[in-house]
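#structure-requests
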Amino acid sequence: MRLALAATIILIGAVGHAAAADGVEAAVRKAAAAYAEAYNKRDYAALAAQWTGQAELVEGDVRIAGRDAIVASIRGWLERHPQAKLAVTVTAVEQVAGPLARVRGSLEFMKRPGEKPVASPFVSLRVLEDGASRLAESLVAPNHAAALDELGWLVGTWQATDAKDGTTVEA
């Protein structure tokens, strides 16, 4: 009898934990979609609401600390790229503890409509704060291939002609 009772308690606990994890994952996915929407609408108040006050954003070797600094950085980038759009793809959500979830996925940036998007993988920590799933930390890996794409104008044939003797060199 005790064994059956213990098994029932464990089963109820496991079902409760699975339901809680499903709720966390749903909240994280909803927050990620809202983040992309706020970014694309240039809704800086909604973007700020996505971050905790002491959040950190790390992109490559650049670390930005604090919600206000993060939003100011995003705003600056968007002002330099007024047609830019963002898509967020969440590939995994792991509930680390209670209100804390580790999120993995990809950010796809497009500077102008019709351009090839630049994908950068990310790992974030989201925490439940005041009923909302907020970013406490986000680590974004730079996309080095995208940096090389900007050097595409270097590809091709180069030609130089010596003004004195008219010799032409092609490389």
